[in-house]
What does this fold into?
Amino acid sequence: MDKRKKTGYFLTVFGAVCWAFSGACGQYLFQHRGLDADWLVSVRLTAAGLLLVLDSLARWRGGALQLFRSKRSVGSILIFAVFGMAMCQYSYFRAIELSNAATATTLQYTGPALVLIWLALREKRMPARKEMIAVVCAMGGAYLLATHGDPSQLALSPKALVWCVLAAISVAVYSVQPRGMIAKYGTLPVTGFGMLLGGLGLCVIFQPWHVVGQWDAVTVLGMAYIIIFGTICAFCCYLEGVRRIGAAKGSILAAIEPVASTVLSVFWLGVPLGGMDFAGILLIVAAMVLLAGDDKPDDK
It folds into this structure.
C-alpha cells in the first residue's frame, strides 16, 4: 500500500475519533450545562468556519476565494454548506438531544450503505464483495455497541427517528459531494467556507446571540474542544482522508467512532464493557482490516 493511502486511512480514523469525543462532549453539555442543539451547532459551525477561512486567506490570500469565481462552484459550496455541513451537524446533535449519542451514532452509520448504493448507481456496477462485507461488519458492530443486541433499545420517537435518518443522508452527502471541489480548491477553503456559510444560515434561524445554559470553565472547555478538535480537525482530516482513499472506504472507516465512544464510556463515564461491546469492536476492526487490505483503485 502506498504512503498516500496509508495517510488517508489515518486521517479518516483520526477524524472519526475526534467526532466521538465531540458527540460525548455535546451530550454532556446538553445534560449537565443546559445547552441545546440549536445554540451549540450554530456557534460551533460559525466559529470553526471563521477560523478556517481566516487561515485559508492567510495561506493563499486571493487563491482561497477561487471557489466564488464561477456559478457552478458557488452552487456546489452552497449545497455542501446546507446539506453537507449544517444539516449533518444539526441533525446529528438534534438526534442526540432527542434520544442519546449511542442511538444517534448507530443510525447515522447507515450512511456508508447510502454511499455505496449511490456509487454503484453512478458507475452502473455492483459494490465489490469486500466493500459489502465491510459495510455489514461496520454497521453490525455499531449496532452491537449501541444496543448490546437488543433492538428494543432503539425505540425512538418519530421526531428522533426523522433526525437520525437525516443525519445518515447528510453523512452520505458530505462524503461524496465535495470531493471534486476539494481536489480543485483544497480541503481548508472548502471545509472552512462550507462551515461558515452553513453556520451563518443556522444563526439566522436560531439566533445564538441569546446565550443559553450554565457557563463555567467546564462549559468553555467543552465548547473549545467541540469547535477546534471536534469540528475543525475532525472535518478536515476526514475530508482529506476521503479525497485520498475514496468515499466508500472513508465512510466505512469512520465507523471507528463507536469504538472511541465505547472507550470514552469506560474511562470517562465509568461504564463497564460487556461481551456485546467487544463483539462490536471486533466487527468494526474487521471492517478496517478488509478495507486496508484492499489496495485496488477506489471510486473516482
User: Anything to note?
Assistant: Confidence is low (pLDDT under 50) at residues 295-300. The chain has 13 helices and no strands.
